Design the sequence.
């Protein structure tokens, strides 16, 4: 009998062969989605040139994926709990790989955008599954170490993603940015089927909230369409109709979630003032991050003249700082409370974005680019780990997995809206990305907008987040191991760019 057959869910040890294979599989699967999120932005200028596309196509290349991922990620987690976490994880990996293959084969912009939306569905299936498999498979004494290893290797993947993406774009071509996922999936799937024990949530009941998921995704899609197409349409009705439809669909989503017996998004979770506040802060922070990383890679290539490889490498300081210091930042946040980090962090990020205004044609990296990225990275270090920990601490432990999934969806949706809205607010018309001077002018407008959104997030955090929210309750102090494990489990859908916060918790 093999280890995989003999191993019962919740009893696997990290020292066992099956434990090491489970960890390897979850790291490999999650790395697919992580790499995709960091390498595609680097490829955007080359995609636009190769397909003869305007700025709207580049926005949709990012947002089609984010739209289906944000809209369906909560449903993906529920499917795993009910149908089997390994099964849904494997389906997600295969789905993601097939969609990636189609992205790389896309003959035109329409096919690429459709394939990216298809890819987001796969991401919504595999993303909640990777840490859920760790939580359900490993022995309680090994879960924290397993998640720490998963988080550390995930951080390495985030660090090499822009470099790898730039190398592929400048080398074999942008299509390989997508095809890279195919061999990773071919390695991941048989290992998962061979070594990962199946597990389910025996308490899961009721029907799946497919209607709620569809309404949420359609609402986001309609609003995104209106924002992206606004600069291209001469008729107001062509923008107003989808915008109004998005608002009505959003209202219908709230109505359905309020009245369903088993909603995807139980609205009573927002009765926690802290949970609501921290999600508003998340919206501000990740909207700014989404706009920043979308436009900064384009600015470095279009206006400064960097190659794809140089642009991807240029942004590494933020990720390196996160890797080195996030765990320590989480510990500081636990000692002093999250209110100060959640105020100071966004303000530092805002300062970094204001410094990016100096990045223009003729910019020198060490003088104009690096200082801005270092300040930005330090702000992210101060901010991200305490933010995630506060999300988990703001609700009952039993609902922390749901809270983390909601917060992750909020972060994705914020980035989605930012990529759609920021070019419109900054005055970027559909062909501006082909002109260094015009793009630079818009970039100088966009960075202060992002900084302003971060300042708003800092003010909300200062006014609403309690300093004692991370302190354990008397019940949790009586059961420290249970509390730590539940916190670890809830990292399953934590926002991106937080590779060290699990160690901090």
Sequence:
């Amino acid at each position: 009998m093999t280890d995989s057959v003999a191993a019962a869910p919740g009893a696997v040890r990290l020292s066992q062969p099956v434990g090491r294979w489970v960890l390897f599989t979850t790291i490999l699967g999650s790395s697919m989605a992580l790499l995709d999120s960091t390498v595609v932005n680097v490829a955007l200028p080359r995609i636009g040139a190769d397909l003869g596309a305007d700025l709207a196509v580049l926005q949709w290349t990012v947002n089609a994926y984010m739209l289906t991922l944000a809209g369906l990620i909560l449903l993906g987690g529920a499917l795993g709990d009910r149908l089997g976490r390994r099964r849904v994880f494997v389906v997600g990996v295969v789905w993601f790989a097939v969609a990636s293959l189609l992205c790389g084969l896309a003959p035109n912009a329409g096919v690429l955008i459709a394939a990216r939306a298809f890819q987001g569905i796969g991401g919504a299936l595999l993303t909640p599954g990777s840490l859920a498999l760790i939580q359900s498979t490993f022995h309680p004494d090994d879960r924290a170490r397993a998640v720490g290893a998963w988080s550390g290797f995930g951080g390495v993947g985030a660090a090499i993603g822009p470099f790898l993406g730039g190398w592929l774009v400048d080398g074999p071509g942008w299509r390989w940015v997508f095809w890279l996922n195919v061999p990773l999936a071919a390695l991941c799937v048989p290992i998962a089927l061979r070594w990962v024990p199946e597990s389910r949530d025996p308490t899961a009941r009721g029907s799946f909230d497919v209607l709620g998921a569809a309404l949420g995704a359609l609402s986001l899609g309609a609003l995104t369409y209106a924002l992206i197409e606004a600069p291209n349409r001469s008729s107001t009705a062509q923008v107003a109709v989808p915008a109004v439809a998005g608002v009505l669909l959003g209202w219908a989503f709230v109505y359905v979630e309020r009245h369903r017996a088993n909603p995807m998004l139980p609205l009573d979770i927002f009765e926690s003032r802290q949970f609501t506040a921290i999600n508003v802060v998340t919206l501000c922070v990740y909207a700014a991050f989404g706009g920043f990383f979308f436009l900064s890679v384009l600015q470095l290539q279009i206006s400064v003249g960097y190659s794809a490889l140089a642009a991807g490498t240029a942004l590494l300081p933020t990720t390196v700082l996160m890797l080195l210091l996030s765990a320590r930042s989480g510990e500081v946040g636990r000692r002093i409370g999250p209110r100060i980090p959640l105020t100071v962090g966004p303000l530092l990020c805002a300062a970094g974005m204001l410094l990016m205004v100096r990045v223009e044609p003729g910019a020198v990296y060490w003088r104009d680019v690096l200082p801005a990225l270092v300040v930005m990275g330090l702000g992210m270090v101060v901010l991200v780990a305490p933010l995630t920990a506060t999300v988990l601490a703001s609700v009952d432990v039993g609902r922390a997995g749901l809270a983390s999934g909601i917060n992750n969806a909020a972060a994705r949706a914020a980035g989605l809206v930012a990529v759609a809205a920021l070019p419109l607010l900054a005055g970027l018309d559909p062909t501006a990305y082909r002109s260094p001077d015009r793009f630079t002018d818009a970039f100088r407008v966009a960075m202060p907008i992002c900084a302003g959104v971060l300042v708003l997030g800092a003010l909300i955090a200062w006014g609403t987040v309690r300093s004692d929210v991370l302190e354990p309750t008397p019940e949790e102090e009586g059961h420290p191991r249970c509390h730590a494990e539940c916190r670890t489990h809830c990292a399953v859908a934590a926002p991106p760019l937080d590779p060290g916060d699990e160690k901090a918790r």
